[in-house]
Specification:
The chain is α+β, with helices and mostly antiparallel strands and 202 residues long. It has helices at residues 31-38, 42-74, 134-152, 160-163, 165-175, 186-199; strands spanning 2-9, 23-28, 97-102, 112-119, 122-129. It has a five-stranded antiparallel sheet, with helices on both faces. Helix 5 (165-175) runs antiparallel to helix 6.
């Protein structure tokens, strides 16, 4: 089960502090059900939502830190990570993808696994339960990132993530409905992408 999905900034240069990461978009799956199960009053629910946002921010900062370390270790020049040079589809290298775990009690009551993908100035993180199929989770995250970046042109302007939040939401509902990961072959993925393109407003 996927707990949440986050899009955040990644330092444009290797010497930027990781704590500069900003959350541009986040989605916690089935949070209404989580709140209902806790059976809390309105004030407690509000406090829980604030705490949830704080947790998402911490995850984004940790993911950015891991990303910058990976970039530094790759030996690639910082200039390669600043802008998307062409309109060609993105290609992800090994150092653009990573994973780390959050022990029980760090942020969540149960252990969580965070998979991240970095694309120039943007980072994408998937927060999963520890029992989740990580191979499937990584494959899904790669697919979602490539679709969002290539189809929604998120790299064109940093504000595009905020302006296209509704389209990002629709995309997530297709690729991981209610936080469930889907086994999709290439043909099924293409069918989903075509369905999204036809259903999205211009």
């Amino acid at each position: 089960m996927v707990y949440g999905f986050v899009i955040h900034t990644v330092g444009a240069t290797l010497d930027e502090t990781p704590n500069s990461s900003r959350v541009l978009y986040s989605k916690v799956f089935n949070y209404e059900l989580i709140d209902q199960k806790q059976n809390l009053d309105e004030q407690c629910l509000q406090n829980e939502r604030i705490k949830r946002k704080q947790h998402i921010t911490i995850v984004a900062r940790q993911a950015e830190s891991m990303c910058l370390l990976s970039r530094q270790a790759s030996g690639r020049p910082a200039s390669e990570f600043i802008v998307h040079p062409t309109d060609e589809p993105i290609s992800l290298l090994e150092e653009d993808v990573g994973v780390f775990s959050l022990s029980p009690g760090d942020l969540f009551t149960c252990e969580k696994i965070v998979l991240w993908v970095s694309v120039y100035s943007l980072g994408f993180s998937l927060i999963c339960d520890s029992q989740e199929n990580l191979t499937l989770a990584e494959c899904t995250l790669r697919t979602v990132v490539k679709y969002l970046v290539d189809s929604l042109k998120l790299l064109t302007n940093s504000s595009n993530v905020v302006l296209k939040a509704d389209k990002i939401e629709m995309s997530l509902d297709k690729f991981m409905p209610h936080g469930q990961l889907l086994f999709l072959n290439h043909q099924a993925t293409q069918a989903l992408e075509k369905e999204l393109i036809s259903s999205m407003p211009l």
